[in-house]
């Protein structure tokens, strides 16, 4: 029976009725990284050095070395990333159960609101209104906030940094509590620099998405793209982070399987 399910899936992918969507940004030296307030240590941007490229250093082969923070580019946040999640059992990327890496997503279209206000705050009421159309967010689903951020943000100011800090969208504390306590989601994902809004340092609690989600053993996905290619419900997300020993998060390829 299960072998039939898998062969039917492979046939659907091969035949084009199920599409594979890449939700990943390209890792390049110019990809923006999170900037924290100046009193804290900062994240280095991605960098890459060629070891050989069919030359004297390696005539038959090409390879690079790269340096990056665990939270660079399209990446996964594990519970131990935040102090509230430090005692979650098996809460680092190497120890998470692999079945956490395949889960369906509810995609919340916030594009009109974020276009009008890039600092849009996602609320419980907004999710309840979405549910009136699409049905209840099922337990174990990702909630993805669709912003079409690449079309909205200034290409030279991905984080929408202003004098008073970043202005990217994200949920308020009540919304995060709702996702955890009333919907038991697997995590929250975004196309922006962080799961938390740019101004979330000033929320109560500060950074509610990181603080509450990771404290509840749940995950984050950040800097995704192409969420406009997904249905509101019914996409299956494949998001295995690298198996970094005691890692707090990891850059990764995020794929979605969706009806074509
Ligand atoms: C470290 C400190 C604060 C934040 C973050 C990282 C992230 O957003 C992240 O990439 O997880 S807000
Ligand atoms: Mn992160």
Please, could you describe this protein's structure?
By secondary structure, the chain is an alpha/beta fold. It is 20% helix and 26% strand. The protein has helices at 2-15, 111-116, 124-134, 149-152, 173-182, 208-215; strands at residues 18-22, 47-55, 58-67, 75-77, 102-109, 121-122, 142-146, 161-162, 165-166, 170-171, 187-190, 219-222, 235-238, 249-251, 255-259. A nine-stranded mixed beta sheet has the order 1-15-13-5-7-11-12-4-14. The protein has a two-stranded antiparallel sheet with strand order 2-3. α5 runs parallel beside α6. The longest helix has 14 residues, at 2-15. The mean pLDDT is 97. Bound molecules: oxo(2-sulfanylphenyl)acetic acid and manganese (II) ion.
């Amino acid at each position: 029976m299960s072998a039939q399910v898998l062969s039917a899936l492979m046939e659907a992918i091969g035949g084009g009725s199920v599409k594979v969507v890449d939700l990943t940004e390209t890792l390049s030296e110019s990809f923006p990284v999170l900037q924290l307030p100046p009193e804290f240590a900062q994240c280095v941007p991605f960098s890459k050095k060629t070891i050989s490229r069919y030359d004297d250093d390696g005539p038959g082969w090409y390879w690079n070395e790269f340096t990056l923070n665990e939270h660079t580019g399209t990446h996964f946040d594990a519970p131990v990333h935040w102090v509230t999640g430090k005692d979650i059992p098996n809460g680092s990327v190497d120890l998470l159960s692999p079945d956490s890496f395949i889960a369906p997503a509810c995609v919340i279209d916030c594009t009109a609101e974020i276009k009008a206000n890039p600092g849009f705050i996602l609320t419980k009421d907004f999710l309840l209104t979405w549910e009136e159309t699409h049905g209840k967010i099922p337990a174990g689903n990702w909630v993805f906030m669709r912003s079409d951020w690449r079309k909205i943000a200034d290409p030279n100011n991905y984080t929408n940094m202003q004098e008073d800090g970043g202005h990217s969208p994200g949920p308020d504390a009540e919304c995060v509590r709702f996702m955890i306590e009333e919907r038991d989601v697997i995590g929250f994902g975004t196309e922006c620099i962080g799961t938390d809004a740019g101004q979330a340092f000033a929320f109560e609690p500060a950074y509610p998405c990181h603080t509450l989600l990771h404290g509840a053993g749940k995950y984050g996905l950040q800097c995704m793209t192409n969420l406009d290619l997904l249905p509101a419900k019914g996409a299956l997300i494949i998001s295995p982070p690298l198996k970094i020993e005691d890692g707090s998060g990891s850059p990764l390829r995020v794929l979605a399987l969706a009806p074509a």
